[in-house]
């Protein structure tokens, strides 16, 4: 594959077709699309809880209020716009990146059409808790599938690589700007926003390890052949390693 159609993510070639092979392909594809769908569902539950949204959700809701579009459609438009920002920082999308743009928005609007508004803390608090935990599950699922970062995660890691600033600083700067802009436009900031910020790192880290897909490991002296039984061993995922990985952008506090 030519250099013009690939890039590296944590040292591995990446393109839209990257990773579409191997014995665990079916499982990985299922994880990717189940994870993205559940992410959209969880974001919709946060909306219905009325107690505050995740940072990018605040922006999406604010833009939806101003444009009259659904929040899912706004999410798709913002995701596509963020993806365009990958061009000057020389990031290349994977299958998971492109899928992220569309699947989450569609799942979000579908869930909002089915789940009514909830009034009263007795209903809002459980809905908020379910939304945050489900978001952690969804994040672990789609990142562990290894089909590339979402547009927003890739923006963080790309800017980290380009500027040399830490992931923590880049992520914080982006999300503060996103929340502030969304709030100014009418997006919902509340206790749910704070709880999400505190909980999503530990939750995603736990579920990323839980849903890690086994990888084959070559023997050092085998010229690339698999060690017997290696394909059944799950790869350890360490969010403190390889700052360019999508897991790093999500999991680092």
From TrEMBL:
The keyword Chloroplast does not apply. The chain crosses the membrane at residues 29-47, 67-87, 94-115, 127-148. Pfam families: DUF6198. Residues 217-253 are annotated as: Disordered. Keywords: Membrane, Transmembrane, Transmembrane helix. InterPro entries: YczE/YyaS-like. It comes from the Bacteria. This is Membrane protein. It comes from Streptomyces gardneri.
